[in-house]
Amino acid sequence: MTGSNESFPPGFLWGTATAAYQIEGAAQEDGRTPSIWDTFSRTPGKVLGGDTGDVAVDHYHRMRDDVRMMADLGLSAYRFSVSWPRVQPTGRGPAVERGLDFYRALTDELLAAGITPSLTLYHWDLPQELEDAGGWPARDTAYRFAEYAGLVARALGDRVELWTTLNEPWCSAFLGYGSGVHAPGRTDPVAALRAAHHLNLGHGLAVQALRAALPGRARIGVSLNPSAVRPLTGSAGDLDAQRRIDALANRVFTGPMLTGAYPSDLLADTAHLTDWSFVQEGDAATAGRPLDFLGINYYAPAVVSAADAPSPAGANRDGHGVSDHSPWPGSEAVTFHQPPGELTAMDWSVDPTGLYDLLMRYAREAPGVALMITENGAAYDDKPAADGTVHDPDRIRYLHGHLAAVRRAMLDGADVRGYFLWSLMDNFEWSYGYSKRFGAVYVDYETQRRTPKSSAQWYGRVARTGVLPYPMLEE
């Protein structure tokens, strides 16, 4: 049965996503200088096992083979990020052509293979020199980001039509400067709020720089990781907890980016920490420059309650790592709960309804702006069988459920243009090092051998046909 409910429209983008620091390696080649993740991962105790991205999966040297692998799978799009310190090592001044040449070659290979390149300017690898000058809590970083955006646009604008400014600025601000579980590892709630604002400002300035440098056919967006926040109960306290976390997880970015203003309840919730005087006149309007698409990264919903609500043992968590410091300035006391049901290897719940809810929410809140799922996927404990094959039926079930949720949202009116699986292949998973495998392709980290998993073959079939198998085919 292949009825309309299981079919995606022609032209829908079927892709995978990666990030420069997680896959490229070549950390000290061709003029690249350290990013905050180079520094953080080399700091004892910050990354599990002492792992770093120095080699990662060596994509810098294996790029052509990796593109050929994507083409063999039948993918129609690839979302990658540019390494800022590879292109502009100090975060200032002219670009390093050797760094740009890698991305020129990558986009040429993709286009030759019939794969649409989707470029992300910032996936967390701030040049260390800019962090030393204040990082994202410093206003100047927003202007440096816009300058960098213009450099990349002028170099690749003739090849790339899909442009994303920031990936998950919530993580950059609140995990990097609030809880400290991500680079640069600072734990200052006011710095986290300042960083969030300057990421908003940098996004808006970068949109301006991209519009000035790119041809009219280019499409510009941002990739957020909005949270589907749900209250544990319908009590007033739990509903207020939901509101608080929604403000910090979602509306701190969508307020300026979509409406040109910060939400008043967010300002009130954090007034005891800061008067937000770092927001200058016109900043929020700059952040609200018109977008062509809104990227949504989704993994699992959040269930929250007031601090005094009973919760099961070990449930006071938010899924972002272990820290004595909260990533929720002004709402540190909110309790996070583990939803019942199936979990991934990250201990994240499997719940496609959260993705459906987010798509419908932003279809309402951003009318006329196309939507893209720019990340969605799951980590499982994948292991090769005796014959070398890697079977991952749990991931196939995960993908089937979430793609069905995307199609349901489209049938209900959401303008979704593409889906990017996280991730193309196993890689450096930030503070978890190489302990978690999100890839559709298995990587033997000692030999760098790539082996497409069952999910890669299944997803490739969906990409080639635009149809979800019904009933679901498990490999």
TrEMBL record:
<dbReference type="InterPro" id="IPR017853">
    <property type="entry name" value="GH"/>
</dbReference>
<keyword id="KW-0378">Hydrolase</keyword>
<dbReference type="GO" id="GO:0008422">
    <property type="term" value="F:beta-glucosidase activity"/>
</dbReference>
<dbReference type="InterPro" id="IPR017736">
    <property type="entry name" value="Glyco_hydro_1_beta-glucosidase"/>
</dbReference>
<dbReference type="InterPro" id="IPR033132">
    <property type="entry name" value="GH_1_N_CS"/>
</dbReference>
<keyword id="KW-0624">Polysaccharide degradation</keyword>
<comment type="similarity">
    <text>Belongs to the glycosyl hydrolase 1 family.</text>
</comment>
<keyword id="KW-0119">Carbohydrate metabolism</keyword>
<protein>
    <recommendedName>
        <fullName>Beta-glucosidase</fullName>
        <ecNumber>3.2.1.21</ecNumber>
    </recommendedName>
</protein>
<dbReference type="InterPro" id="IPR001360">
    <property type="entry name" value="Glyco_hydro_1"/>
</dbReference>
<keyword id="KW-0136">Cellulose degradation</keyword>
<dbReference type="Pfam" id="PF00232">
    <property type="entry name" value="Glyco_hydro_1"/>
</dbReference>
<keyword id="KW-0326">Glycosidase</keyword>
